[in-house]
Design goal:
Blueprint: E1 5-10, H1 14-23, E2 29-35, H2 39-49, E3 53-55, H3 58-62, E4 69-72, H4 79-88, E5 92-96, H5 103-116, E6 120-123, H6 130-140, E7 146-154, H7 174-190, E8 194-201, E9 213-220, E10 225-231, E11 239-246, E12 250-254, E13 257-260, E14 265-266, H8 277-291, H9 299-316
Parallel strand pairs: 1-2, 1-4, 2-3, 4-5, 5-6, 7-10
Antiparallel strand pairs: 7-11, 8-9, 9-10, 11-12, 12-13, 13-14
Helix pairs in contact: 1-8, 4-5, 5-9, 7-9
Length: 318
């Protein structure tokens, strides 16, 4: 494919804006349609980014003959159904993490992708962050093997707000969203499937209806282990912090920064063409479309992560 890829983006919130900013930096891609539930806000964002078609209904965008692909930055509960709609309409699709919050819906998406042959990718951004790429390349080169990952995912979210401090119309989830990043990254970096998983959670929030604190233990088939702590109760510092403990060293990733166990900074600026994980994720999506190949982070590749999350959810329900 040599022509410009015509894209629709669904969800004009905080993460949708990140994708719009990223796409501006990628040649051969044009956002032609913007979908979101608040029409006035959607028109405002579309005007800023020069997007001509605006709607509150994904079906309107899918009906555009010139449309090639869709990026979904919508509420978690809509992801599987909207991904299915895009594939059934003959459009390539990238859906933000998580692929689903019901395993059978994610499995159905993977089966549909296989039937259509279209590119279907899930936004597991940690695969693309330069800090994690640097570690991944060291592992692939046989220079480092993970013994343990220690990960902290901490936010202060006692009210239902998004990353911009705006009220959300849906409820975020520690297990199906935030844990998904680490569960997938652990197996991806180890190059080994997860064979044991255990979780405990704290009290359920009376208004939000979700656990605000959670602890997860994982073990890969190659013997590596992972300990993941998650909280919506943590009043700073915020974000996810990764400690890789290996056979030849220790590495700590904080956002896009990477240091060794002695807190000596490692330059990851030349690992990829950008330091922006969302941009790199989008570049992979569009490259896979143009090259007619499976992307890194395809729905099939990340499905094992959701199988682990389903197991943990059933365990927590006991």
């Amino acid at each position: 494919m040599s022509k410009t890829i015509k894209v629709a983006l669904a969800g004009a919130g905080a993460f949708g804006i990140k994708h719009l900013d990223a796409i501006k930096l990628i040649d051969g891609v044009e956002v032609i349609s913007l979908i979101s539930r608040d029409l006035d806000k959607t028109k405002e964002v579309a005007s800023k980014y020069g997007i001509g078609h605006v709607t509150t209904d994904l079906a309107d965008s899918l009906a555009l003959k010139e449309l090639d692909a869709v990026i979904l930055c919508t509420p978690t509960q809509m992801h599987a159904a909207q991904t299915t709609a895009c594939l059934n309409a003959g459009k390539h699709v990238q859906v933000e993490i998580p692929l689903c919050d019901v395993l059978k819906e994610g499995e159905a998406v993977v089966e549909l992708q296989k039937k259509t042959g279209l590119v279907a990718m899930c936004g597991h951004t940690r695969r693309f962050n330069p800090s994690h790429q640097w570690v991944h390349k060291k592992i692939r080169a046989g220079e480092f093997n993970i013994q343990q990952m220690d990960v902290q995912t901490y936010f202060f979210r006692r009210t239902n707000m998004n990353a911009l401090g705006q009220p959300r119309s849906w409820t975020d989830h520690l297990l199906w969203h935030h844990a998904a990043h680490t569960v997938d990254l652990f197996a991806y970096q180890c190059g080994s499937p997860i064979v044991q998983a255990n979780a405990v959670q704290g009290p359920i929030h009376p208004a939000l209806g979700i656990a605000m604190d959670m602890s997860i233990q994982l073990k890969a088939a190659n013997g590596a282990i992972c300990t993941l702590s998650l909280s919506f109760n943590n009043d700073g510092p915020l974000g996810t912090f990764f400690r890789y403990i290996g056979d030849t060293g220790t590495y700590i990733a904080r956002y896009d920064d990477l240091v060794n166990g002695k807190e000596e900074k490692i330059d990851v600026s030349k690992v990829d063409v950008s330091m922006n994980g969302i941009e790199l994720q989008d570049r992979e999506f569009f490259a896979a479309i143009k090259e007619g190949r499976e992307p890194n982070g395809s729905v099939a590749q990340v499905l094992p992560c959701y199988q682990v999350l389903n197991k943990l959810e059933r365990q927590l329900a006991l």
